[in-house]
Amino acid sequence: MTHTPPPAATRRRPLPVPGELLPRERWDQRWLAAVIGVLCFLACIAAVGALAADRAAHGWAGELRGEATVQVRPRVDETGPTSAARAAETLAGVDGVDEAHAMDRKEAEALLRPWVGEAALPDLPLPYLVVVKLSADNPATPQALSSALAEAGLDASVDDHSLWRGEVESAAGMVTALAIAAFVLIAGATAAVIAYATRAGMTAQSSIIETLSLNGASDRHIAGLYQALFGKLALVAGAAGAAVAALVMGLLRVIGGQSGVTPALPVWFSDLFVLVVCPLLAAGTAVLAARLTALAKLSGRG
Fold first, then answer.
1. Sign of the CA dihedral with 280 first, then 286, 289, and 295 last
2. Which among 76, 78, 116, 85 is positioned nearest to 103, based on CA atoms?
3. Cα distance between residue 267 and residue 248, in whole Å
4. Predicted model pTM
5. In whole angstroms, what is the distance from residue 97 CA to residue 160 CA?
6. CB–CB of 24/171 below 8 Å?
7. How far apart are CA 51 and CA 251, in angstroms?
8. Which residues of 181-202 are buried (b: 16+ CB within 10 A; e: fewer)?
9. Are 273 and 279 in contact (CB under 8 A)?
10. What is the C-alpha to C-alpha distance for residues 261 and 39, in angstroms, rounded to an integer?
11. DSSP three-state, residue 177
C-alpha cells in the first residue's frame, strides 16, 4: 500500500527566516546607524579622556606627596654649591628619604626659562635648592628633615608642598569629576537617541507589526524580531564608532610617546579595553527599547 502525500494546500510550510519577515534596510535605518556610530565615538573618547584625566590629576598629587624642597642659605665661610651638596648628603641618610640631590644652576635656569626668558637668567640670583625624593611607604616628615639639617649645622628651610598640595588635590578631584560627568552626559545622550530613534523606526513599521500579529505571530516572536533587527544595527554602529575611537586614541598614544598625548593627559593602551563596553551598551539599549515599544503597540498602549 502506497502512501500518498497530502495536498499542497494542507502541507506544513517551513517557518520563514526571521530576517525575511521584516523589510530590508532603509535609508532611515542607515541614518540611525550613522548617528549611533558618531555618538558612540564621542562616548568612547569621553571615557578614555576621563581615565586619562583621573590618572593625570592623581599623578600630580602623588608627585607632590613624594617630594620635598629644601632651600639652603650658605654660611659666611662656605659657598652656596658646597652648602647645597652638604645638605643633600645629610638628607640622603635620613630614614624615609630615597634620594636627595642639589639642584645646580643649569637645572634651576631650565625651570625658570619659560617664565622669565633667556635674557634675564644670567644676572638673576637663584636660591640654592635640594630636591628630596621621599619614600612611598614611610616618608620622612618635615620635622625629621629640619632636625637633620640643624644637627649638621646647616641653615635651611624645608618645604613639603603642604601649603598648596591640598589645592592641587582638590583640583585633581574636580578634574576627575568633570571628566566623568562629561562621559555620563554623552553616554546618556547616546542611550536617549538610540531609544528614541528605535521607537520612531518601529512606529513607521506599525502596519508590519499589525500584519504579523494578524497572521498568528505571537507578541514575543514579533518583539524578538525587532530586538534582533535594532540590536544588531546598534551593535554594528557602536562597534564602528568604538573602532574609530580606538584608532584615534591609539595614534595619539603612539605619537605622544612615553607620556601619551601630553603629560597632562596620559593615555595608556589599556584604556582601549574600555571601548568594548560601548557597543554592548548601545545594543542593549536598542534591544530594550525595541522590545518595550513592540509589546506596547501590540497591547494597544503604544
1. negative
2. 85
3. 11
4. 0.61
5. 13
6. no
7. 17
8. ebbeebbeebbebbbebbbebb
9. no
10. 23
11. helix
Tell me how far CA of residue 168 lies from CA of 54, 78, 201, 263, 291, in angstroms.
13, 37, 49, 16, 48
Which SS3 state, helix, strand or coil, does residue 97 take? strand
Residue where the block lists cell 593625570: 56
Residues 6+ apart with CB under 8 A from 182: 46, 49, 50
Name residue 93's amino acid: G
Dig out the grid coordinates for 10 from the structure.
494542507
* 259 CB neighbour count, 10 Å cutoff: 13
Q: Which helix (H) or strand (E) holds 147?
A: helix 142-151
Spatial contact of 251 and 269, defined as CB atoms under 8 Å apart: no
Q: For residues 6 and 161, what is the distance between their CA atoms, to the nearest angstrom?
A: 92
- Between CA 11 and CA 89 the distance in angstroms is 98
Q: Which three cell numbers stand for residue 73?
A: 642659605
Cell of 106: 643649569
From 168, 231, 167, 221, select the one nearest 195 (Cα to Cα).
231
Torsions phi, psi of 133, nearest 5? -95, 120
Per-residue pLDDT reduced to its tens digit, 35-60? 888 888 988 888 887 787 777 777 77
Q: What is the pLDDT of residue 145?
A: 92
Q: Which residue, among 262, 266, 257, has the nearest Cα to 59 in the 3D structure?
A: 266
Q: Please tell me the total number of residues recorded for the chain in this structure.
A: 302
Better pLDDT: 205 or 69: 69
Distances (CA, A) of 113 to 107, 108, 238: 10, 9, 47
Note the pLDDT of residue 19: 47
Q: Considering only CA atoms, which of 23, 131, 29 is closest in space to residue 71?
A: 131
Taking only the tens place, the pLDDT of each residue in 93-114 is 899 998 998 988 888 878 777 7
